[in-house]
Amino acid sequence: MLWIIYSSKYDEEADNPAKRMLKEALDQGLDAKLLYFNYFKIENGNLYYNDKKITNFPKVAFLRCNEIWLAEYLESKNVHVINNAFCIKHCKDKYLTHKIVDSLGYKGIKTILLKDNSYSDLKNIFGEEFILKIRDGLQGRDIYLIENEEEFNEVIKTIDTANFLAQEYVKSSYGRDVRLYFCGDEFIAACERRNEFSFISNIAQGGLTYEVNLNSDVINMARKIKRALQGEIITIDFVYGYDELLFCEANTNAGFQSFAYLGYDMRKIFMKYIKQFA
């Protein structure tokens, strides 16, 4: 049995991606069920769905969400969770991600907690321009390019500084990054995302996607990062430094529209991988 878990917000969409994922699972002969994380709750140590107590658990749960509490509970019931709670936690919080990558000795974008640092403090660390970014952001939201003290002061008024990071601004990668998709230990493909009109490359923010060929050193570096994060179905992103790629972030619940544009049937790839555990 496989549980595919999404947010119920997708039920409101005419072209429901959750139901398309379920269809692929069923087409591959999997005993699969689509569930929505916001209908789950835990009471007195028991898990409920739509107020009905769950007594039978699946072999595998594929979480297309970032609910750490749900992943932890399912793992306690010996469910193979993709991705597991450790991975979700350490990818969702970009600061924790960078700490793990730093421990591996790989170069990444210089990243610190924003806390109560002043513009002057950050200027001394990063230079006049730098990025403010929410720790658990998605789809390029809540990211600010700060170019002067006036902009910094305006942004600071609108955000919770305790939940933000400060990062170096890598000018050489303006509007561009590289994303690698892994399924298990297998490298599926890499793409370059480009946005001519913004420093944010995300497809959700207007970026376009192009296939890119990477050497084995970069792929192996990304694979080692993936393993350290305990990721199974996961993306690893890099930006273009002046003379090398720099680690940017990892995502456990990344969209795959970029790769679909390039002709990859990601749902089929996901289910082929998951099938071995179900």
Keywords, separated by commas or semicolons:
Rossmann fold; alpha+beta; globular; Dna Ligase, domain 1; 278 residues
Give a description of the structure.
By secondary structure, the protein is of the alpha+beta class. It has three domains: 2-82, Rossmann fold; 88-107 and 173-272, D-amino Acid Aminotransferase, Chain A, domain 1 (2-Layer Sandwich); 111-169, Dna Ligase, domain 1 (2-Layer Sandwich). The protein contains nine helices and 16 strands. It has helices spanning 17-27, 68-76, 85-92, 94-104, 119-126, 149-156, 216-228, 257-261, 266-274, and strands at residues 2-6, 32-36, 40-43, 46-49, 52-53, 60-63, 80-82, 111-113, 130-134, 143-146, 164-168, 176-183, 186-194, 208-211, 233-240, 245-251. The strands form four sheets. The protein has a five-stranded antiparallel sheet. Strands 2-1-6-7 form a four-stranded parallel sheet, with helices on both faces. The chain has a four-stranded antiparallel sheet with strand order 8-11-9-10, with helices on both faces.
Give the topology.
Layout lengths: L1 E5 L10 H11 L4 E5 L3 E4 L2 E4 L2 E2 L6 E4 L4 H9 L3 E3 L2 H8 L1 H11 L6 E3 L5 H8 L3 E5 L8 E4 L2 H8 L7 E5 L7 E8 L2 E9 L13 E4 L4 H13 L4 E8 L4 E7 L5 H5 L4 H9 L4
Parallel strand pairs: 1-2, 1-6, 6-7
Antiparallel strand pairs: 3-4, 4-5, 8-11, 9-10, 9-11, 12-13, 12-15, 13-14, 15-16
